[in-house]
Amino acid sequence: MRRPEEYFQDRVIRILTERGYLVLNCGKKQIFDIVAIKKQTAYPIELKAKTGRYKENQKQAQAKAIDHCQSVFFVIKQSNRKGKMVLSKGECTRRAGILLKRLQIDLEEYLV
After folding, report:
1. pTM (whole model) above 0.85
2. Cα–Cα distance between 47 and 27 in angstroms, integer?
3. Positions in the chain short of pLDDT 50
4. What are phi and psi of 12, to 5 degrees?
């Protein structure tokens, strides 16, 4: 039986693909759920359904991985509002702000 997070992940992948991203599904045991690529820029993304918990050790592992390669990552959470999501950045750098804005534009109609 599929978990709610898997349905949410399929939906996010479909939306990003429709907007021109190449989306790589990283699998359950990887640091990030998906990596979306567009215009030679990679967006590591952690996905969380409404019922999903974002554990502290997972946040720390993601921050360590990102710090090691000097990049940024994003978190997309399923909102309580039907069909909507919340986009946030996992790292607060200037580059993260620019990339966050690009994702916000592409996902505009789905964000709370």
Report:
1. no
2. 12
3. none
4. -65, -45
